[in-house]
Specification:
Blueprint: H1 8-25, H2 31-38, E1 45-51, H3 54-67, E2 77-83, E3 101-108, H4 113-116, H5 119-133, E4 139-142, E5 146-149, E6 152-163, E7 170-178, H6 196-200, H7 206-232, H8 245-253, E8 260-264, E9 273-280, E10 286-289, E11 295-298, E12 302-305
Parallel strand pairs: 1-2
Antiparallel strand pairs: 2-3, 3-7, 4-5, 5-6, 6-7, 8-9, 8-12, 9-10, 10-11
Length: 306
């Protein structure tokens, strides 16, 4: 039996707690409406003791369901206590032993293109908020969604597109790897990786953490749909001076603005240039300034702090 097992009942309790929290923190918006938009998260939760890779399992699930004439449940979450072939961006290995939160969510995307760019931000914000709620007040976000303690990475996310072969439906596969109680890392990862337990000196209930993370994921995905509805109604976004509310949350959690960075689409093997981060634009694009004063905005790729 899988160890990490959020249930519908636990998730319902977490949604109620999240709503109460947001109503106090965000009295200027309709928090119940935001959470309703996002409550597809965790519509079904598929828990495993071990999988090779959650995203591969998700693709196979889409094929199996559609081949039988069915419809894939939007928000289905796939979890595994361990994964044997997990990986991050490109071909990078992601160490996924017992003690972490490993998995992915199937999001059947009906978002407009202008809203899709916020999906990578949503998962990073949700994780950073959950870690802070469990005592990790030092957690912060590095563009676009790495969660760090100092320079060490505690969580990473990978968003991949997938089109169902039968109906042509578009999905986001939102993969997540969060180091919670796992304290040892391969030699090559030890200088750059950490876990919540390692940072705070105690272990955590994995199911409790995962349930909280999913509730915050529901809130932040809900914000994407809520703000899209605002725009389609001819209104401004609901943040300060018309800022997208999710971008506002990301900015409040991020350590990236003002940092000297190296940028690359694969920054580990092919770094492209150094620059200083001067901001993010309305769509979450990273605004960089070179030493000669020239500026550039990047919408994909990755950075490392110098």
């Amino acid at each position: 039996m899988a160890h990490n097992q959020p249930t519908p009942e636990l998730l319902a309790e977490a949604f109620a707690k999240e709503l109460s929290l947001r109503e106090k923190r965000c009295p200027d918006i309709d928090s119940a409406a935001v959470l309703r938009y996002g409550q597809f998260v965790g519509s079904t939760i598929d828990c495993h003791e071990s999988l090779p890779r959650a995203m591969d399992h998700a693709r196979a699930h889409v094929h199996e369901v559609e081949s039988q004439g069915g419809s894939v449940a939007n928000g289905r979450v796939i979890l595994a206590d361990t994964m044997s072939r997990s990986k991050g961006r490109f071909t990078r290995a992601w160490h996924a032993p017992a003690g972490g939160v490993w998995g992915c969510m199937l999001h059947a995307s009906t978002l407009l293109d202008i809203s899709k760019r916020f999906v990578p931000l949503a998962v990073g914000v949700a994780c950073c908020e959950a870690i802070r709620e469990f005592g990790g007040g030092g957690a912060n976000l590095r563009w676009v969604n790495d969660v760090l303690f100092g320079q060490r990475k505690v969580a990473g996310f990978l968003v991949e597109g997938h089109t169902g072969a039968c109906y042509g439906e578009e999905y986001h596969l939102v993969g997540f790897g969060i180091n919670i109680n796992n304290n040892s890392f391969p030699e090559e990862l030890s200088p750059i990786a950490t876990s919540l337990a390692k940072e705070l000196g105690r272990e955590f209930d994995l199911t409790d953490f995962t349930t909280t993370f999913l509730a915050k994921l529901a809130w932040n995905f809900g914000l994407i749909y809520y703000e899209e509805a605002q725009e389609m109604a001819g209104e401004t976004y609901s943040g300060v001076e018309g800022t997208h509310r999710l971008l506002e949350s990301w900015l409040s959690l991020s350590s990236t603005i003002g940092k000297r960075v190296v940028f690359g689409f694969d920054v580990m093997t092919s770094p492209q240039y150094e620059a200083t981060v001067i901001g993010v634009d309305d769509g979450g694009g990273l605004q960089l300034q070179f030493d000669d004063g020239a500026m550039k905005t990047e919408y994909s790729g990755e950075i490392r702090y110098i």
